[in-house]
Amino acid sequence: MRETKLNVFYYPGAELAQTTLKKAMLLFDELHITDQPAFTFNRGHCGFIGVKSSLRGFETLFREHGFPVYVHTAPSGLVDERGGFYEDISADVNDLQFLRGFQRGLETSETFRQIHVAHGEYGENGNQDEVAQKLITVDLDSALKLHGSPMALFEDLSVPTMGFSSHLECCKNLIFQAIGCSAKLNLALNLSASIGIIPLADAPPFRDLLGAKYGRAINRLSMKDNEIPLTDLSFAIFDEIVPAERLKNWISRA
After folding, report:
1. Sheet of 7-10: strands edge to edge?
2. Per-residue pLDDT for 214 more than 60?
3. Which of 9, 43, 158, 242 is most buried when burial is the number of CB atoms within 10 A of its CB?
4. Neighbours of 191 (CB within 10 A)
5. How far is Cα 254 from Cα 250, in angstroms, rounded to an integer?
């Protein structure tokens, strides 16, 4: 019997599949989840709609039967462009390894695709499968030629955010969806760093996106003979996940 509790935070969305819930009950000691965050972005003139998790009505029931489930209120509001959270998202989305990993996830994982492209009819653009196909097949390299970075395209107000009528619009739509994914991932990492719970996702693409963040940390190291001391690597990854300035602010409030 293990002595250390394994408490996990499911971050891909406000809902999780029954199979994921059942596996969590078998493998872990606590499950944490948040409502769907409602974020808005000034530069993109767009945002995400907040939704309460349906698990809110079952927290007490799960606890009474021996499996603690906690639904947290998600942060919401304007994402400050001067703040670290916007910088974290920008670093992810401007990393083409992260962005291509997101696009590849839409193609290879049905679970991942359903999280980011909701079931329904999208007018003249067809259903969720046809919309997903537009995002999967968009050529990022050609769409980004006129912009210095993916975030520069996102912040270009002359290109509609949710449109599909042009190659550029499809690319911006893909970037917008990746921004939402990055926001949830960074929330999970920050929460995990602050209270010590482990991020949990049920689709392999999330692992690849997290790997892209770790990859940036590794690439920033000054390597000699391709040898990386474990302590240096650990601190580099920690700096990528929790910026020093944020850690200072947390210490000053303690």
Report:
1. 69-72, 30-34, 7-10, 198-200
2. yes
3. 9
4. 17
5. 6
| φ, ψ dihedrals at 201, nearest 5° | -135, 155
- pLDDT (tens digit, 9 = 90+) per residue, 164-176? 888 899 999 999 9
pLDDT of res. 212: 85
Segments making up each domain of the chain, as ranges: 7-246
Q: What is the pLDDT of residues 22-51, one digit of tens each?
A: 888 988 999 999 898 888 887 657 788 888
Contact 43, 154 (CB under 8 A): yes
The two tokens of residue 96 are 């083409």
Cα–Cα nearest to 12, from 254, 144, 203: 203
Residues forming a β-bridge with 10: 33, 200
Is residue 217 within 8 A of residue 120, CB to CB? The reply is no
The token duo for 249 is 């602010």
206 contacts: CB under 8 Å, gap ≥ 6: 12, 105, 112, 185
The CA distance from 105 to 99, in Å, is 10
Whole-angstrom distance, CA of residue 49 vs CA of residue 169: 20
Distances (CA, A) of 90 to 59, 86, 153: 34, 6, 12
Token pair in block for residue 113? 């695709």
Q: What are phi and psi for residue 10, nearest 5 degrees?
A: -85, 115
Contact assessment for residue 209 and residue 102, using Cβ atoms and an 8 Å cutoff: yes
Nearest to 50, CA basis, from 187, 152, 170, 156:
187
Which whole-number Å values give the CA distances from 161 to 98, 164, 171, 179, in the listed order? 20, 9, 9, 12
